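LAB NOTEBOOK - FOLDING QUEUE
OPERATOR: T.R.
BATCH SIZE: 2
PURPOSE: Compare the predicted structure-token outputs for two unrelated chains run back to back under identical settings.
PRIORITY: normal
REVIEWER: second-year student, initials M.K.

ITEM 1
FIELD SEQUENCE / FIELD STRUCTURE:
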Amino acid sequence: MSRRRKPTKKEHTMAEKKPVKTGAKPAGRSGVGKTSKGFTAEEREAMRERTREMKAARSGADGEAEVLAKIAAMPEPDRAMATRLHAIIKASAPSLSARTWYGMPAYTKNDKVVCFFRPGHKFKDRYATFGFNDTAKLDDGAMWPTAFALKQLTAAEEARIAALVKKAVG
């Protein structure tokens, strides 16, 4: 009676390897002429804006003028909110510098974005957003808000934003 021998580890792993496929890719798989499904057109435009902003910063462009031009180009009601927010931020924290950030108005301290305004039309949202980055000193326990949806600005919202901006700058 003959016994079958057990394959060695090398023989076992070699048998499991799949053959290498060669030849051309199937038609339509080259990616040519296809758009990325990862980013929307608006997101790709924001990335292009960021590249332009970085080049402008190296050339010493005036950030305040760029922000005011971006605000002027916004459709209503985003333009009215951005204009009012710009005034509130400049009055509440004169130490912040205005510049654009991904094509949106932003306010910086030591070249780091503290707060920003994202118009609703930019990404086809139903509301605008006023937000803070991690450089803002808003820490309050283990959890705190960093962005706020804006449908309109009333005196109550303006007062709250002014207080948050003052706190964010520290």
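ITEM 2
FIELD SEQUENCE / FIELD STRUCTURE:
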Amino acid sequence: MPTYDYRCNANGQTIEVQHRMSEQFTTWGELCARANLPCGDTPADAPVHRLATGGNVITSRLGSGSAPAPMCGTGGCCPNGMCGLN
């Protein structure tokens, strides 16, 4: 199943989730429910948008807009060489 990054402008957080291509989330509450995370202080109806990431790997489920982790170029640690580990 593909992974997608969604960003919430209300709190500036980015969350990576897996879902079918036919699915899309539009609110912070829907996104947090899928990621099994608490909404925290952000209203559940705060809008989110899917990012066009081009397959980048982020190092955690919650990001702060930081750059993705470097990919292992050799593929030695995973079949595609995209595990994000050094």
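REVIEWER COMMENT (ITEM 2): The radius of gyration is 14 Å.
FOLLOW-UP: none requested
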